[in-house]
Sequence to fold (193 residues):
Amino acid sequence: MRLILGSASPRRRALLAQIGVAPDAVIPAEIDETPRRDETPRLYALRMAVEKAQAIADDAALILSADTIVTVGSRILGKPADAGQAAQFLLLLSGRRHRVTTAVALRLGARLWTRRVETQVKVKRLSDMELSAYLRSGEWRGKAGGYAIQGIFAAFIPEISGSYTNVVGLPLTETANLLTGAGYPVTFEGAPA
Fold:
């Protein structure tokens, strides 16, 4: 059975490799990612993952897609457009807890399986020096909420409650369960650390 990853994220490919899964193809889905009026963050993430899976036209392959969002209250922090917006996001996260939600969708023809995972993340209060250094690093680019927990920003996160791999971009426990439930072989023979 062929597996198509509907995501351009190198982090998602690396996470899949950890459990011995190598997609046969990577096809980023092109969809409108504008939140709907009065749509909750949780429903938005789920809708994005499902629409990405449905946008890839191959009914004979398993299509795996995901969407990760960072929320403070009901405000969704997407991928910052520039360093100024990244600074705004990071200042909003500084000294607070926030939620990271990843929705995963797996499609085979008309069949669709989904999971949604949430993790609480606490960010320490960032000093001006820490914020400036992080912005200069460029690590915020292309990351929901403007940070990468698996990189430099890990030094600013004293605690999480929930799945670490969810915050990176793909909750592995739930993803492995979806894949095996759909009959896809997950070998759990990933690359050594």
In short: DSSP finds six helices and seven strands in the chain. The domain at 3-181 is CATH 3.90.950.10 (Maf protein). The mean pLDDT is 95. The helical segments are 10-18, 41-55, 83-93, 128-137, 164-168, 172-181.
